[in-house]
Amino acid sequence: MRLVGRIASHVRLRSKLDRHVYSSEIDYRKLSAALGIDWALPERVAFIKPEDWGWQKEHRIAVGRKGAFAVESVDLALNASGGAVAADAVSHPLVLHVGSLSKFATLHAF
Length: 110
Known about the structure:
Helix 2 links the parallel strand 2 (27-29) and strand 3. The protein has one domain. It has helices at residues 2-11, 42-45, and strands at residues 22-25, 27-29, 48-50, 59-62. It is an alpha+beta fold. It has a two-stranded antiparallel ribbon. A two-stranded parallel sheet has the order 2-3.
């Protein structure tokens, strides 16, 4: 995929980013399904969503900050109420400039 290659070449220029770019289709699972070994591998968790979102047929590209995808680099919490748990906000987002994508990508407006 040309887009992933373009991202990977620009990621290498950023010292705060992990040098590996992950790209995969999303694995839609029941909320009751056990994660198995995936819980310890953040690069796999990044590609799992509840099955109710399966209509999206999403392909995701993930780049982490250095160490973010290290084995067991996860935070776990039990939520007895069953409600959503708020994620910590990223204080300083990193912008990755990959140049024009017009030669191989088409913008679709919905």
